[in-house]
Structure formats: structure tokens, C-alpha cells
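Limitations

Structures in this collection are predictions, not experimental determinations, and the ligand pose is part of the prediction. Treat each record accordingly. The example that follows, with zinc ion as the small molecule, is included so readers can see exactly what is and is not provided: the inputs are given verbatim, and the output is the predicted complex.
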Amino acid sequence: MKHEIKIPRQIKLYELICLIKHGEAITTELQKQKCYGMFLKDKNVRHIWLDVSQSSSDLSDTFIHECLEFINQSTLGGELKHRDIVAISHGLHQILEQLRIRFVK
Ligand SMILES: [Zn+2]
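Predicted complex:
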């Protein structure tokens, strides 16, 4: 992959900060819940959890997906259906892969 972009520790949407977490404990928790990533909002703190044990391509896809969950919850009032988020994130992921851009841990 030509352009490997390191997944940052946090991302911001307007004034909203979302912390990005991964590691052994996060992977164990996600696997327990049978998912590869998760967006959580606890009071005013937003988190994206990522299972970094998945393949590098799948991790990039999951990161894009969870960013869309963050956008949906923060600026669209959760109006996007989950299947829309899945379709848009898979589509963006495919396009970015063709451009040889991948988000990595
Ligand atoms: Zn989702």
C-alpha cells in the first residue's frame, strides 16, 4: 500500500472530540461482542474502539465505518440507517484502496 496513514489517537468534528482506542483489552471486549469496531458515547465523551487483530485492509474499512458512525451520531442525529453506513463505508474503502490509501494502526 503506497499511502499508509496512521490512525490518529483522536479525531475532531467541529468542537466534538472522539478518542480512538485499540489494544489487547479493547480487542478482547470487541470479540466478546462479536464486532470489529464500535462507536460509543458516554456522557460527553466519544470513543471509537478498533480491533487491530483483523487484517490491515479490514481495519482500514472498520476505521472508516466508525468515523461515519461518529458523523451520523454527531451531525445527522443518527438519521442514517446502519445499512447506509455499511454501504458508504465499504464504498469509500474500495475507492481508497484503489488509490492505494489505507488507514493503519
Ligand atoms: Zn456500525
